[in-house]
Amino acid sequence: MDTAPFIELKDVSFAYGERTILERINLKIPRGRLVAIMGGSGSGKTTLLRLISGQVAPQQGEIIVDGRHVEHMSERELFEHRRRMGMLFQFGALFTDLSVFDNVAFPIREHARLPDAMVRDLVLMKLAAVGLRGTQDMMPSELSGGMARRIALARAIALDPQLMLYDEPFTGLDPISLGAIAHLIKKLNDALGTTSVMVTHDVERSLNIVDYVYFVAGGTLIAEGTPDEVRASASPWVRQFVRGEADGPVHLAYPATTTLSADLGLGDAHA
Ligand SMILES: Nc1ncnc2c1ncn2[C@@H]1O[C@H](COP(=O)(O)OP(=O)(O)OP(=O)(O)O)[C@@H](O)[C@H]1O
């Protein structure tokens, strides 16, 4: 049995210019798992996905995906790395002037030279996998938001990726479409044996489908565990997140140095 982690980050630090975003991150994700990364706004969750996909390189540390060091990859190796990876991003819109068929066929045509008949079979299979058989001739403008997200998912899995990265896949969807996407993410992970990393704010929804959760705050991983461990956690941090409380260790307001009453000229100068 293969016990090496599929994704491993060793002592990874990343900064945009002078500004440190992530500091000495260590994590190991086993093959085939569906993992969530949660944390406050701007805590560096998307940056973690960008490091794993090789869109940005760390100033320090190692990022190993399926035995390959992402931080040392050449352009050509990065192209190969991305071919093995599918991404579904909140704003990963469909190409509006291409049909559903051509949208899903796009990565297949970009990365593989296959006869048209085979491309067609692959596209139809992926549309069936997301429950949207028969939509291939529609244009994106004819789709609901939920259908468009599922087509984007079909496009993301077009090349049978070993790794799926999801950035806020539930945002902007109605509850029914959201449930459908959550169910599909889980189903595809299990059926295809894909390893999946999902950045999300939707705690309750993701706890129902993921195997493991990491919490990011202040540039470091501050907690981790299975959904049951997370639900039972005594950490005030995790509890605030899971319960969606406005008050707690995570400050939702910008840390102002003066009070509102002082700003309004009513005395009490310091926060
Ligand atoms: N290209 C960039 N240049 C400079 N700073 C950036 C850049 N991209 C992101 N940042 C900053 O890095 C920090 C982390 O961003 P990131 O998108 O990883 O956070 P996040 O946890 O995904 O946030 P959110 O949940 O709000 O999307 C933010 O403060 C952001 O302003």
UniProtKB/TrEMBL annotation:
InterPro entries documented for this protein: AAA+_ATPase (IPR003593), ABC_transporter-like_ATP-bd (IPR003439), ABC_transporter-like_CS (IPR017871), P-loop_NTPase (IPR027417)
UniProt entry tagged with the keyword Nucleotide-binding: yes
Family matches, as Pfam families: ABC_tran (PF00005)
Highest taxon listed in the record's lineage: Bacteria
Residue span, ABC transporter domain: 7-243
UniProt keyword terms in alphabetical order: ATP-binding, Cell membrane, Membrane, Nucleotide-binding, Transport
Coiled-coil regions listed: none
MF annotations from Gene Ontology: ATP binding; ATP hydrolysis activity
PANTHER family in the cross-refs: INTERMEMBRANE PHOSPHOLIPID TRANSPORT SYSTEM ATP-BINDING PROTEIN MLAF (PTHR43023:SF6), PROTEIN TRIGALACTOSYLDIACYLGLYCEROL 3, CHLOROPLASTIC (PTHR43023)
Entry protein name: ABC transporter ATP-binding protein
